[in-house]
Design brief:
The structure is a homodimer of 379-residue chains. With 379 residues, the first copy, chain A, is α/β, with parallel strands linked by helices. The first copy, chain A, has helices spanning 132-145, 159-170, 189-203, 221-235, 238-244, 263-278, 281-293, 304-307, 328-340, 364-376, and strands spanning 17-21, 25-26, 32-33, 36-43, 53-57, 84-85, 90-91, 96-100, 115-116, 121-122, 153-157, 177-181, 314-320, 345-350. At the A-B interface, helix 3, helix 4, helix 5, helix 6 and helix 7 of A face helix 3, helix 4, helix 5, helix 6 and helix 7 of B.
């Protein structure tokens, strides 16, 4: 029997691990979890000084599976596989990389699908609201568990970037560098509006059953599908969509039906269908709320400079010119506030056509910036 | 009894009229209507030369009720009331203005709610697909009926602008001027994508019943509500939404619920609820498809210059800097093609913060441009 081929720079075959926590976790929402599990994955090796750990924080639909593949797969399937591996920008020959599924997630960590011991049924919509800050607290406990006092870096894109930023404020002594990519210091009204449409699609789906759909053997797939379709529009730039799909007609001409006519319709429906089968609607709801609530300046009367004063890390902030979900101006707000506070901050604005999704792609300029930044980090 | 106060520049108390057509109308979709009714309203008086008529074409959710108010109302309720009236930019002392509800509409003209004589039940989703060109054909028949050989002007915003443009191509000898406002020569992939999300919201609503929901005594209000919420996001600019709503919290702080927390959520839900009670889901579907299909250059291999070669009218093209649904670049495509063909075309790019919705507002610069343009038109 021939071993399957593994690409030279692959993180290889990986397997998730589970950490169990029995201490109470008090949440910003006033809720609490008396115990919980976090699923995570590791790539590379922790050095003797335990100083080379990098935490990768995921965005709305990500997970702990950042790089490599599982034993039963033929190809690498990690969501940031192009970034993480031996010889890749986040080089696993140098760094010990950790991917984690956030609390409230649907990929193995304790979340709405988990059993609520108090009721004997799945948490469903009763799962307490979790915030970016709560996630960081939970991640810090995992770091304790793994014996990591201080991260060489925390990195994330979009909602993941908010977690990276929050790490530098909640645990300034525990994170030496932070990469905040395609992110924002808070959502705009328009960002919240898109999230609200997604939530209303799920909440008003008759199969939602007030969030306890598991017991009914159904799922609000119609709503989740619509939510994902709306999301996808905001992940791509108008130009990227135009170049990829334009007004191409699947049948070469108008056929006058509500079936698929334009290729963009086919793409959106496919993305929506796929996501609705895999993802959990309650996790989607929780996660969009965490996005909406994130606003470190709120407690400082809206003053972002004051809010970021606690940060001690060295920063890399990256934005993409065609990202209209979190436009470069939003990243620059973070850069200005950090620079004003005397932080060591690098800023790169990458001219990649793919919109918000650019942060997931292997744009050469983008990856060169990341590679150089990680290369300079001492471990 | 005191007469209600009417503002000096009001079009006053108006009443809709109905025109009945018994000739077959063949549609671009291959469908046909053996007879139909069009509801319209008039403001001002047709002059003796019958040369002062202006047709106002409506957009997605508009109607024939352009200006003034109905006898049982206390206030003017026309959707373009700020534009049309005595002394207003489209001055009814000079012009005879006509508003019309398009075929397939839900405000009185023959549409999905009307009885399909072939089946004895409402048309529902069996109502034939109608295009911008079909609407213009139907409008031309109304002009025949009213004894109007040639319009002094045809004006419309957004989808209404597409009708105004199409008039100049389908009936170049019957339209002397055309105002194409906040419009585009065709939808982009992103525009189609938003329409597709709206359609999927309606089509997958369990209350849609394949478009024959009237017989079930229900309506796909959940879907229509979501469609309208998505639409509203695209009608406003990010900045306008930010200025109007920002991140204002209805309760002053996060309360961690799926109820209304941010003011933008309240606004969107209200707009969605209101629309879902009033509008017809089948009309919404048909109208978004008419938008998607509109592409006069398609028959010319994508060559817009060739497509617009038939136009003889004098044009005013207006775009708004903050309109990201139909950005100024889309209007400029029309302007360039018209100018290349030697047409008389004026172009105004108005710096109004309200996004696509600007075309409905009384921005002083915008209205000054319109007033001057209408003033120069000889009748």
């Amino acid at each position: 029997m021939t071993e399957p081929q593994i690409e030279p720079q692959s993180a290889g075959v990986v397997a998730p691990a589970t950490a169990r926590f029995d201490d109470v976790l008090r949440l910003r929402s006033g809720g609490r979890l008396d115990g919980y599990e976090l699923v995570y994955e590791i790539y590379g090796e922790l050095n003797a000084a335990r100083s080379n750990a990098v935490l990768v924080c995921h965005a709305l639909s990500g997970s702990h599976h950042v790089a490599g593949r599982y034993a039963d797969e033929d190809e690498d399937s990690g969501w940031w596989n192009n970034l993480v591996g031996p010889g890749k920008p986040l080089d696993t020959r140098k760094f010990f990389v950790i991917g984690i599924n956030n609390l409230g997630g649907c990929n193995g960590s304790t979340g709405p699908r988990s059993l609520n011991l108090a009721t004997g049924r799945p948490w469903g919509a009763d799962f307490p609201f979790v915030t970016v800050e709560d996630w960081v607290d939970a991640q810090a406990r995992l770091a304790d568990e793994l014996g990591i006092d201080s991260f060489a870096a925390v990195i994330g894109g979009s909602l993941g970037g908010m977690q990276a930023l929050s790490w530098t404020l909640q645990y300034p002594e525990r994170v030496r560098h932070a990469a905040v990519i395609a992110s924002a210091p808070k959502l705009s009204a328009q960002n919240i509006a898109f999230n609200e449409v997604a939530r209303q699609a799920i909440l008003t789906d008759p199969d939602f059953h007030d969030g306890h759909f598991y017991e009914h053997g159904v799922a609000p797939e119609r709503g989740l599908r619509l939510a994902r379709m709306v999301g996808h529009i905001t992940y791509l730039s108008d130009d990227a969509m135009g170049e990829k799909f334009g007004r191409s007609l699947c049948h070469g001409k108008a056929v006058y039906s509500y079936g698929i006519e334009f290729e963009i319709e086919s793409y959106l429906r496919h993305q929506g269908d796929k996501f609705a089968r895999q993802f959990d609607a309650n996790t989607y709801l929780l996660t969009t709320k965490a996005l909406d609530y994130y606003d470190p300046a709120f407690a400082h009367g809206g003053d972002l400079i004051a809010a970021l004063a606690a940060a001690r890390a060295g920063f890399l902030v990256v934005a993409f010119t065609t990202d209209w979900r979190f436009a470069p101006a939003r990243s620059r707000e973070i850069v200005y506030a950090l620079a004003h506070n005397g932080c060591d901050v690098s800023y790169a604005e990458i001219d990649c056509p793919a919109g918000h999704d650019s942060f997931l792609l292997a744009d050469p300029q983008y990856h060169a910036v990341l590679a150089a930044w990680f290369d300079r980090i001492e471990v």
